[in-house]
């Protein structure tokens, strides 16, 4: 029977150049294991092979790191030392990044259509320098990696797990790839075919390596990293867990994890967030983030029901940094104290937020996704991210943000959802053709006339949309869809149009042309549909939030949501910076509200940083519960709080929120 998935993991990078000659010189197995134990770690991903293509085992293969201490099986000794003290030790293998294989077999390198190698040019003089070289899985390299995998599985049988990294869909025009594409019936001259074959190829090697691991060790976990999470529905059979790599300062930002965790948790597999101890990104030796940031990132994982993973990189000599593990130990000690109220908890949600289809191999959050995550988080709404195949029964409200195409199959599902009393919010061209000229989902109740000829228009709030909005014409920086309500829909507010659009020879003042006249086009529409309601906002409201940050766009969405979801599961009287989630431990019969008050601040041109934890006082929480709780208390201190229960809602005042508070309704 598989062991429970570990809750406090270290992802221990070890990408070590062949030009470093003292690898493992100061290795001490006991010190290594004791350091991990003291830091409350329950699992460590250790390295068999890194991006340099170097092996850290006692393999007889030429890829064994030339600087590795003679006779030292660094990978094996790490595994043995960790398992000896009850810490799990899955093993890492780099897939498409392998400098050794690329240099010894240049015919295995991925090629662009013009014949140049795929990769990022970091240096042009004195010659182009690529990092990293990318290997073609259609070449004999796939068998080469299979041999390395088989050796690891045999040497350390039974392995706790394998972690395959750098596994994105990589198009290529190498000779090997062209031969494979032609054999499979694809056209190498077509970019679409190159992309589709790259995806099929990735699924093929994932299935192959997953099968190898399962045949060797049935209880072992398998994970393929660097995959677009949007592909989870197709790829989940090959994954034992979902690891959301989201180092905020490493290019992911602080929106990537909260958006994607709400999708990953819908697949029924263990899921965890992966941050790192680095100030910037991976391999930032000597870069140590503030404790407040690491507390925030791990607290955010707990608040979403995720397990925790913190990345580090082992020094080439095999020593762990003392300060790093004091930092990690402090964060993981805090996590361990709170786990009894987190393990087995499942999210309580009202809203299913449809996911904007990813472009190509992108794993980053789109503008609409980011804006929706920001708005709904700031409004303390409880939501999952869903797709066209997700079971919609658990949700009371669905949101189609900005540009969701509604085909006949999805329209049928949405209509059934409305018929049973659910509500739907669509924005922008969702349910319309991309140019806004054609109504593709008739239930919206619109007569579209295409996109506005004006880039900038103005919002005149009214007809129920004006709550909390100053009485003015407010600029809209995104282009609207011109559409009139029909079929029982009613318009809300009005679009105000400018004198003219600004061009190089036809302009006024410094920015957009001023507002001129109120148009006949509404800001939003609302109609009854079945037993439910459907609302539409005439522009890409969520992308507008992400692109421009105007609080007025958030207020517009809040006012529309109030009509569609008047009794949300949670209300919190707190600033927009406060995050709130609702989790339920059914077995224990308790509901836990997580409140997080940390404020990432843009302190450099590119980095959002967290250094301070500023207490927030007297936070009101109002939670929908089927029956009155016997007690309400804070975890882990078990300090009881007075509460009031009436008409299916429980209200309580939290005296102080210091970073992260857990309010338990039991």
Question: How would you summarize what this structure contains?
Answer:
Helix content is 25%, strand content 25%. It has 14 helices and 34 strands.
Tell me the strand percentage band.
15-25%
Query: Which CATH class of the largest domain is shown?
Result: Alpha Beta
CATH topology call of the largest domain: TIM Barrel
Unreliable spans are none
CATH superfamily of the largest domain: Glycosidases
Q: Describe the largest sheet.
A: 8 strands, parallel
**How are the strands of the biggest sheet laid out side by side?**
7-6-3-2-1-10-9-8
Total helical elements: 14
Q: What's the domain count?
A: 3
Percent helix, as a range, is 10-25%
Query: Strand pairing plus helix content: what structural class?
Result: alpha/beta
| Rounded radius of gyration (Å) | 27 Å
- CATH architecture descriptor name of the largest domain: Alpha-Beta Barrel
